[in-house]
Amino acid sequence: MEHLTDAPVANILILAGIIFLAVGIFGRIGGFIGTIFGNIEAGKNSRVLAGALGVLLIVGGGWLHDENHKSSGSNLSPATPASSTAPASSTAPASGTAPASSTSAAGTTSPSVAPAVPREVPKANASAAQPSPLKTTPLAAPEAVTPETAPDNSPTSSPQAVGDDRLVGTWTNLTAQAGSIKRLEVVRVGQALDAHIWSSCSSGECDQGIHRLGSSGDTSTYDFTAGDRRRRGSLNLHTPGVLLLKADVLEPGTQHRWHLNWVLIKSTLSEKTQSAFARYLNAPNQKAFAMAPGGAWSFQFKSSSAAAAARAALQHCEKRGTGCRIILLNNDAAE
Length: 335
What we know:
- The protein is an alpha+beta fold.
- It has 3 domains: about 5-75, no CATH class; about 160-270, Calycin beta-barrel core domain (Lipocalin), CATH 2.40.128; about 270-335, no CATH class.
- It is built from 8 helices and 14 strands.
- The strands form 3 sheets. An 8-stranded antiparallel beta barrel has the order 3-4-5-6-7-8-9-10.
- Strand 8 (about 230-240) and strand 9 form a beta hairpin.
- Helix 2 (about 10-25) packs antiparallel against helix 4 (about 45-75).
- It is rod-shaped, with a radius of gyration of 57 Å.
- The N and C termini lie far apart (about 125 Å).
- Mean pLDDT is about 75; it is low at about 80-115, about 125-130 and about 145-150.
């Protein structure tokens, strides 16, 4: 029955065509239809014309009915926005955030749910279609920054400096002799220490170059080869201004080896302590110089022996400080 009302013009044409065709076939119309339009009696020519017109009306009405049926079918074929977007509006992210079809307080949507794209609705039926919830949500929502993709702005720890900064400065050997280290300058280069070394020679000072200092506990070391000799040394701070240097000189390929001890003082050492060293070096033998790590010192000269001078110097030094040790015995560095 629905086809009787879906295309009224086409149905009227078909009905009229049937009436005209009946006139053409039977020559007359009566009965119920006759009560409406009156009894129709047609001649031979009128019957032929009525039959032809009836066929044309039936064909035309059928064609028009078919076209209306196609048009209504195409209008009903697109899915409504409510049904096409149902998965997006009913599916929520696993984390419990708002569905993709709703707008969050921050104006962002969960990137884990892909928004459904509705098919284009013909303009003629756009007003009748239900508005899609997706129209209120930006299609190109900004992605939320997660902890996995967030830039790492945590401060990086800088490499730890190697060596004792108290070594930085100029040091002079108190008992320099030919072939011994006469002077060295220590500088900080990045996280390491470099030592520029000069030795005592006939011309005064001979440059031995710049060498990187290693570190082992509280001791800094150097190791280099100059000419046919290898030179190794360890630097130990006795006080902030007094350096005890133990050196080994070797001739590679031979059994020749020399072990040497030197006492070096820093250029920033107090004038009083530098004056004490100068007076000690000018004093006659048998003598000894004692010094504590805190800087207290004492020396003894004109003793009966070097050992007696050492005992007396230590006794006097201990009265003024603790941890005293003999650093000079006569004019040589003590072992």
